Amino acid sequence: TRSAPPARQVDVVGRWDFTQADQSILGTWTIDANGSLSGSRTSGCSYAGTVRPLPTAAVYEADLTESCPNVQPQRLSGIAKLNSAASVLTFGLSTAGGAQAIAFAVQKQN
Question: What's the pTM?
Fold first, then answer.
C-alpha cells in the first residue's frame, strides 16, 4: 500500500481562517515555524497552543486552549490533517476524558 508522506511543520506555517458558507471570516489562527498557534474568533474567543507534526504519521498533533468571554478556558487536544493541496487543515479535538469533541476545518491564506 502507498502511504502518505510524513507531516511537515513548514506546510502549516501561516494564517488560517475560519469561514462561513458565504466565505465571511469568523476568525483567524496563525501557526509559526515552531508550531505555536495563536488567534481569535469574531465571537470574542481567543486561542493559544501548538500544532506539530507527528514524526511517523501524516498528521499533526494539536493541543490548544480556547478562552471565551464569561466561560472557563477549555483545553482541547487531538489531531489535524492537511489536505493534499496544503490549503485546508481539518482538526478533530476533544476535551480531557472526551466529554466534549469538535471537528472543523480552517483554510490557509496567502
Answer: 0.90
